[in-house]
Amino acid sequence: MPIAITREVSPSINQCELTFHEREPINYERACEQHRQYVAALRSLGLQVQVLPAEPELPDSVFVEDTALVLDECAVILRPGADSRKPETESIAKALAPYRKLFFIEPPARVDGGDILRVGKKIYVGLSTRSDTNAIEQMQNYLRPFGYEIRGVTVTGCLHLKSAVTQVAENILLINPKWVDKTRFDGMNFIETDPSEPYAANAVLIEDTIIYPIAFPKTQERLKAAGIQIVNVDADELAKAEGAVTCCSLIFKD
Ligand code: CIR
């Protein structure tokens, strides 16, 4: 059974990092309730979900995706770009150690998991405000022996590569073409986000179903028209912290 590692919302979520969003109050109880729904959605798709306890001192720690890249062969513990987020990796490394051999991104390199999109053996790394080429070089050294090809991709206008593009089926990427160049992803087909829904490109793919926010009905119509199965969640509270659905889990094979 595939595993998902998640973490409860921090009570200090209102001190989260923000880059492209204006700060607005986050209702902690509502964020927790939506996070429980997200965990339930993962379970409904057959995942064994491990929920780590909240980290009161680490406002963004619910966004576990940014701390690690988990592959079938190993895991890479990342070095998040925001200083307030660097301590988040410690507990994640402990949680992953029973499952995978661990590699570590070493200073001064920086990379957030939200910037890493794996499609088969290709790993695209967003060159955003959070991630740099030094991290790409380290990932190449660790992962080339397993047959992975790592490619840097420029991303503008949003926080992470996966704010702009995610995989929604074996050969299909959901993309906002204003934030990332489609031609970087050769061999793939695309569904574009509706222009009125720029944040709609983030979906969690599990087998042949996606977990997808209810906030993007126009883009959802495009996904449905392409035959993609959808489990909806309400994720608008954590969206105020600039987080989307992929951010809240690390999913991997047992
Ligand atoms: C941050 O700025 O780091 C958090 N407030 C949001 C992180 C979202 N993570 C993700 O997209 N993978």
Structure commentary:
Helix content is 21%, strand content 25%. The protein has six helices and 15 strands. The chain has helices spanning 28-44, 89-96, 133-143, 161-164, 217-225, 236-239; strands at residues 3-7, 48-52, 68-70, 75-77, 102-104, 116-119, 122-127, 149-154, 165-169, 172-175, 189-192, 204-206, 209-213, 229-233, 250-252. Helix 2 (89-96) links the parallel strand 4 and strand 5. The longest helix is centred in the N-terminal third of the chain and has 17 residues, at 28-44. Bound molecules: citrulline. Residues 16-17, 19, 60, 63, 65-66, 82, 85, 113-114, 159-160, 241-244, 247 line the site of citrulline.
Tags for this entry?
alpha/beta, binds citrulline, three-stranded mixed beta sheet, single chain, L-arginine/glycine Amidinotransferase, Chain A, 254 residues
Helix-strand blueprint:
Elements lengths: L2 E5 L20 H17 L3 E5 L15 E3 L4 E3 L11 H8 L5 E3 L11 E4 L2 E6 L5 H11 L5 E6 L6 H4 E5 L2 E4 L13 E4 L11 E3 L2 E5 L3 H9 L3 E5 L2 H4 L10 E3 L2
Parallel strand pairs: 1-2, 4-5, 7-8, 10-11, 13-14
Antiparallel strand pairs: 1-15, 3-4, 6-7, 9-10, 12-13
Would you summarize the structure shown here?
The chain is α/β, with parallel strands linked by helices and 254 residues long.
What small molecules does the structure contain? citrulline
Question: What structural class is derived from the secondary structure elements?
Answer: alpha/beta
Q: Using DSSP, what is the number of strands?
A: 15
Number of helices: 6
Q: Kindly report the spatial arrangement of strands forming the biggest sheet.
A: 2-1-15
Q: What percentage of residues falls in helices of 4 or more residues?
A: 10-25%
**CATH architecture descriptor:** 5-stranded Propeller
The average pLDDT score comes to 98
